[in-house]
Amino acid sequence: MVHSIPNAAQGPLTAPMADAVSKCVHCGFCLAACPTYRELGQEMDSPRGRIVLMKEVLEGSLPWESAQPHIDRCLGCLACEPACPSGVPYRDLISPFRAVAQPHLTRTPIERLRRRVTAWTLPYPERFRVAAQLGLLARPLSRWLPAVVRPLLELLPDRLPPAPNLPAVAAAHGPRRARVALLTGCAQQVLEPDINAASVEVLVRQGIEVVIPPGQGCCGGLAWHTGDHEAARRFARHNLDAFPEDVDAILTNAAGCGSALHEYPLILRGTPDEARARTWAGRVEDISAFLVRIGFRPPRRMLKTTVAYQDACHLANAQGVRSAPRELLRALPGVELRELASAELCCGSAGTYNLDQPDLAARLGEAKARALLATGAEQAVSGNIGCLTQLNHHLRRLGAPLRVRHTVQFLRDALIADDPAPDLHRP
Fold first, then answer.
1. pTM confidence score
2. Which domains does the chain have, with CATH numbers?
3. For labelling alongside 308, which of 58, 59, 207, 273 has CA 20 to 30 A away?
4. 319, 302, 200: which is closest to 255 by C-alpha?
C-alpha cells in the first residue's frame, strides 16, 4: 500500500509501522480470519480497514479520535498474520500505533480510572491478590457497582488458590539435560499458581534444572498492548537485568507473556538496550516447544481419555507454536486429541480485552466454549492463563462441568500417575 507517512514522525517506531503499511496490498484475505470483522461485519473493524485508518492517521489526514474506536476493538490476536499472503507484520503496526496514539486520545474519567487501576494491580502479584480478594468480597454487590468494574468481578474464580512457594532453583531428576530460567507471570501467580508448579515438576522430571529468578517482574505485555510504551520499556529492561545468562533457554508458560518477551526488540527499538533485547529474546521459548525440542519422555501408563486442545492466539499466531502442544499430548499413551471447529478464532480474552470490550469478548468466549463442548472431549487444555480464565468463566455460565487446564498441568498429572515419586513443587 502506497503511503506518505513522514520519516521518523513518531520516533523509532515509525519505520516498522510504515513497513507494515507498505506490505498490505488490500487483498482482503484477512477479513475472514478476523474475529471482530466476523462479529461486526464492518470494514473498519477488520485488519485491512484498521491498516487504512492507521495509515491515514500517521499521514496526518485523519484525526486520532476517528480511528480510536476501531483500534480499541482490535483483539491483537494476530489471526490476520497467517492468513495474509503478503506477510504483513500486523504486530509491528497495532501495538506501536497504540503506543504513539495514547497522548492524543481522550477517554472518559471512569475509563481512565479503570485503566489506571488495572495497570497498577495486574502486573504486580501481591497487589493483584489483594485487589482480587476485595473483588470477591464486592461481587455480591456487583449490580450496584459501576458497569465498568463488573467484568473483572465476574471473571474472578470463586476462591483464590494459596500463594505459590517455588524454589529459586529446582534440581533435575537424574542426569541434567539442560538448565532453564522460568518466567512465572503476574495474574497467573494469583489465579492459577499450580501452572508454575506443574511447569517445574514436568521440567525436573525430564532432567531439566529450573531457575526461577527472584527479581523478575511482569513481562510488560499488558502495558505494551494497551499503549503504555514507557511502562513496557521499564518492565522489559527490568527482566533483561533479572534473568541469568548461564541458561540454555528462557521459558514461558503463558502465551501472552511469551509473545511480549519476543517483542522486546521492538519495545526497546531506538534505545541502547535494543541489541541486548534482540539477543535476549532469541533465547525465549514456550515450554511446550522446548519440551519437544529436547525430546519429551512420555509416561508409559495408559490414560484412555479424550482431550480437546485450544490454540492460544499469542502462542499459535504470535509465536508460531501450533504443533508442539499437540505432539506432547499425542505422546501420552491412550490420549485421543480432538480439534475445535473454527479453532483459529480468538476466545476473547486477549490480555485485558474482556475488561476493555466486555460485550464483544463475551460473544467470542461463549462461542469458543460451545466449540469446546461440541468436541465431546472429556478434558480440555490450552497454553495461556487468559484463555483458561475466559473459557472456564463461559463454561460455568453454560452450566457445563468441563474445565480447561493448562497443557503442563495435564502433562504433570500423567507423569505423576506413571511414577508417583514424592515431589516438592506441587501445592
1. 0.93
2. 11-104 (1.10.1060.10), 299-418 (3.40.50)
3. 207
4. 319
